[in-house]
Amino acid sequence: MLNVIWVCLICVSCLYGFATGRGAQVGAAFFDGAQSCVEFVLKIGSFMILWQGILAIADKSSLSAKISKLLSPVISFLFKGVKKGSKAAKLISSNVTANILGLSNAATPLGIEAMKELGKKSYGKIATNDMCLLAILNSASLQLVPSTLIALRSTYQSQAPSEITVPIWIVSFATVIFAVCLAKIMEKSSFPKGGIHNS
């Protein structure tokens, strides 16, 4: 649906431009936009490749495994319906670890697999509390290295692109705590009876 909306906006803009005698400007805007897009992709792409390489080294050096093991007690505490040492617990720990390290490419498939494992205890198409909590942790994840934002700031000639790191730590940590607390409160309220079941 969103693709249709974008196509309609582009078509209407082009028709209006030609109808008002601004065909030359419309054509120039297309070429300028394409050039700017390519330059942007090349700039941010090189920066992202560098960070992904560094984080991949951290992953290969067993840093991810160590953090995952460290998070295991926390995962067991938060996800009441997940047994310690189970496949679901390991996938959730790995997913959270990948998000913390900024390994979004690795976090996505791990999150999907973890959700599938949790879905085995769901009631038809109704999400369990553990499934909802996993979605929350992925949406409001704490990142040690906010590589995407640093790359964007660097692309737009920021004098100190990494100065946002500490504020992001503070805000994301507060967001995670608030989101998890709210999820736990909702678990104990009467709301789950209407649509979300315990694992």
How would you sum up this structure, described in words?
The protein is an all-alpha fold. The chain has helices at 2-19, 23-60, 63-78, 87-100, 104-119, 129-139, 147-155, 165-188, 192-195. The radius of gyration is 22 Å and the shape is globular.
Chart the SSEs and their pairings.
Blueprint: H1 2-19, H2 23-60, H3 63-78, H4 87-100, H5 104-119, H6 129-139, H7 147-155, H8 165-188, H9 192-195
Helix pairs in contact: 1-2, 2-7, 3-4, 4-5, 5-6, 6-8
Number of strands: 0
Distance between the termini: 34 Å
pLDDT averaged over residues: 78
Note the run of SSEs as H and E.
Answer: HHHHHHHHH
Determine Rg (CA atoms, Å): 22 Å
DSSP strand content = under 5%
Separate helix tally: 9
